[in-house]
Amino acid sequence: MTAAAIGPETAGELDDAGVISRSLTEPECFSALFDRYGRQIYDYAARRLGAQAAEDIVAETFFAAFRQRASYDRSRSLARPWLYGIATNLMARHRRTEEKYYRTLQRTGADPLPEPLADRVVRRVAAEAEERRLAGAIARLHRRDRDVLLLVAWADLTYEEVACALDVPVGTVRSRLNRARRKVRAAFGDTDPTAEEL
Amino acid sequence: MDDLKMIRELRSPAATMPAAVEDSVRDRLRAMAAEPAPPERRPAARRTVLRVGLVGGLAVATAAGVTVVQTVGGSKSGVQLAGAAELGDRAARAAEAAPYQAPGPKQWVYSRFLSAGGYDMNTWWKGVDLGKKQETSEMWNRVDGKSSAYISMKGELRVIGESGDLAKKGSGGPAATMVGGGPLYNLGNYHTLPTDPDALLRRLQNSRYPNQVGETGPEDVFEMMSHILDDPSPPKLRAAVFRALPKLRGVRLRHDVADAAGRRGEAFAFVDGLGERVSIILEPRTYRYLGTRQEVARPREVTLDGGKKITTRPGTVLGWSARLDQKIVDHAGQRS
Fold first, then answer.
1. Within a domain: residue B138?
2. How much is the pLDDT for B156?
3. Which of A127, B154, B196, B280 has the most CB atoms around its CB within 10 Å?
4. CA angle, B51 as apex, B47 and B55 as ends, to 5°?
5. Per-residue pLDDT averaged across A116-129, rounded?
6. Residue A90: its chain B contacts at CB < 8 A?
7. How high is the ipTM of this complex?
8. Under DSSP, is residue B108 helix (H, G, I), strand (E, B) or coil?
9. Is B219 touching A (CB cutoff 8 A)?
10. Domain around B187
11. Buried b (16+ CB within 10 A) or exposed e, A106-119
């Protein structure tokens, strides 16, 4: 592969599908996607698994995406759901660790995510009761449901994007989210910690 | 309650990616870009994971192998039952009398079901669409619980196997492995459950998921029982479930409840702590499992994101399903 005439800089003008398309002949263009979404994916992984694991997840996500780019459905102009899907799948291997962290937070009030940022330590130690209960509820969700819930709540994906990320029908996304939210609400015994219900 | 807001705030803000990590990923991408290899068209070398598209918790249901063993006269739904206990007893007898052949561990349970569409998270209290917006899904679960399959959005069969088993090929998608725990009890371990209704009830009430937080409540037991009825479970266990259901606190008989396909049946209904009623609908003569329905039973005031308050309206249907088919087959993708 020779050096391309059009580098990552020019790729900035293309949409994601355009970048991927161009990267088939000019692979170095692909890093434009990392510039666009690397931080978001890292963010998401860090919230679920901590900073250290997030480093591996974000790297593997983009390496896997690069290798699979030829099979990307280029009718989808935004690659974000695809990347979140790859990241979510990679994170599945860490399910037990992830659940253990939520449970520890629930039990002790201290979030054991490895390598917490200094300014968050204090807050973590003093986790509110409802935060602990929430962590317990999230730990208890089925992983499929948790993926949907966290892709919506933490990654801000729409239903259609979650469906695309997980390769399931939109109706499945809705039902999983519905179930996850009910379980979370049920963990609070149907009382709203921020606004008392009658 | 503002559950989504609370979740959004949990662990927020997240850590930011260290510059050194960014640099190393970029360097590696550059190195990969410089390699002469063409982009892969086959599944990625590194296994990634896909999940099965299961419909809502209670949706997958039936009694494969149950045949008509008694025909009872009476109302349009077969017979006027006095209460949940009578429904339980009749359904139990039907289950016990039904022919049953235990599926082999490597066989698959094929299921096709219909569910109501139109669920919108932002307006969940308005319920699902009761009209034509229905979605049909199909899935296959291997009896030993170690693999499952579904039809992807592209219409391709996707098999999810345990590590080592291989998954579907052809679309360039990732190979898939099965992860995550399913229900605590499944076809692979139903034989460990007692078949005496009281003992079964005690066992389920005292069972806990390894990562469970909080106590096992009657709604959990109801859901576990519903799962057992979802599966082509052994007749003695089904009978025990049918007889135990009425003993579970809060379970009531409901007459003439329709499933998502419009079939009417008798139902075991349970109102959970949120005031939502879940009904397990049985065919009124054979007591075959038809589907489930979730609806608002008691009005409840809920504060939404942004502080707006709404009140749920009794009768609003929150989830609705119908089992259309269930068969034991030898291979994933097989329908008969």
1. yes
2. 84
3. B280
4. 170
5. 52
6. 48-49
7. 0.84
8. strand
9. yes
10. 49-329
11. beebebebeebeee
Question: Which residues on chain B are in Cβ contact (under 8 Å) with A130?
Answer: 6
Q: At what angle do helices A51-68 and B19-34 cross, to 10 degrees?
A: 20
> b or e along B296-305 (b: 16 or more beta carbons within 10 Å of the residue's beta carbon)?
bbeebebbbe
Tell me what pLDDT residue A11 has.
Answer: 61
Predicted confidence (pLDDT) at residue B177 exceeds the cutoff of 80: no
Residues A177, A141: Cα–Cα separation, whole Å: 11
Q: Is residue B231 part of a domain?
A: yes
Total domains present in chain B = 1
Q: What is the mean pLDDT of residues B75-99?
A: 79
Lowest mean pLDDT among A14-28, A64-78, B152-166: B152-166
Structural domain boundaries in chain A: 11-187
Distance (Å, whole) CA B329 – CA B157: 15
B219 found inside a domain: yes
Tokens of B244: 């135990």
Taking contacts as CB-CB distances below 8 angstroms, the residues of chain A near B117 are 171, 174
Residue A18: pLDDT band (50, 70, 90) is very high
Give the tens place of pLDDT for each residue, B54-72.
333 333 333 332 222 222 3
Is B60 part of a structural domain of the chain?
yes
Q: Is B48 on the interface with A (CB under 8 A)?
A: yes
Distance, CA of B215 to CA of B208 (rounded, Å) = 8
Rounded to the nearest angstrom, the minimum Cα separation between B90 and chain A is 31
Query: Among A62, A175, A192, whose Cβ lies nearest the Cβ of B319?
Result: A175
Q: Distance between CA atoms of A131 and A140, rounded to whole angstroms?
A: 14
